[in-house]
Amino acid sequence: MTQRLQDVVGKLYRSVAGHARQVFALSRREAERLPRLPSVAVISVTAPGRAPANLDGFDHVLRLSFADVDFLKPGLSRKATENLTDAFTRRHADMIRSFVECLPDEITAVVVHCEGGYSRSCAIALGLHRLYGYNVEMEHLGRANSSILYVMTGDDCMVCSRPGRGQQVKLDNAQDVFNDAVASRTRPEKKFRKTLRRSAHRK
């Protein structure tokens, strides 16, 4: 067991009902080794084409599959561009919000895992912190995928309790950026970057 996993397990055992929920970002391998505590819910993120993670024994599990691609990042690699159609979307964000909003009060912690535990899971954990006030270990979230965070919250730097009309507009802009990113696969990169700048001005 890695030191990181040991630290998280210790905190899961010490979670107390009635306090703000904790959210942790882990790798797939680490999440599969977690003790099956009834106070823990899991958001499982796997890459398209990969088998589901082994999470038998957890009562509350949301399984998602999407690629680790940041469509807000300029100069997308060829591989990232090819994966755009499998990127995180508004539908994924809605599923996450519905899942956590329906969790019983007995759930004191949410573990989010992706394949490596650095990008997708960190973005979702940070999004839950900003949307719902979940406690996070900010020092472990520095490599969060910015486009996932943007789609989840409507802005990569906003702090809010519930999404509202203004946030909906920003989410629509995020979808526009994503659509432009997909379209950019058939047009020059320079033109795509201009589209990104125009979208940023609309926020």
From TrEMBL:
Lineage of the source organism?
Bacteria, Pseudomonadati, Pseudomonadota, Betaproteobacteria, Burkholderiales
Q: What is this protein called?
A: Tyrosine specific protein phosphatases domain-containing protein
Q: Which InterPro entries match?
A: Prot-tyrosine_phosphatase-like (IPR029021)
Highest taxon of source: Bacteria
